[in-house]
Structure formats: structure tokens, C-alpha cells
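Side project, low priority. Logging it here so it doesn't get lost.
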Amino acid sequence: MAAIHIAMIIITIVFTVLAAELRDMMKAILAFMCANIAMAAIFYLLGAPYLSVFQLLIYAGAVTILLLATIHAGEERGD
């Protein structure tokens, strides 16, 4: 069971570094979303299902949608 925890931690770290280092904002936001999904899986594996659901709803859902909406609104204005 510890092997899956370590694998999920590595996946989370990889996606977090990708989110910080990617130049393309769309790809960075998608990496941010994947990191949050992996973190929600870690919470679930550790026995915190409610925290996992909140992580999915707030960070992987709402924050990602807000970031995507901000990027698309900026593209429409031509900035």
C-alpha cells in the first residue's frame, strides 16, 4: 500500500513542477488540475473522503474554471 502512496506523491510533484514551469498557460492550468486530482486521490487513500471531494470541487473544478475563463477573456480583448 505504501508503494501507491509514493507513486501518487511523485505524480503530484511532477504535475506541480510542470504547472510552474510550462510557458503555455493552457498546458500549465491543465497540469495544475492534474496535480489537484492526484492530491485528491492521496487524500482519499489516506482515509479523508470529504477532504478529497472538497479538493476536487474547489481546486480541480472551480479554480481551474476561473483560470480558464480569465485566459479566454484576455484573448477576446486582444491583450
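Brief comment: The chain has one domain: 2-77.
Revisit when time allows.
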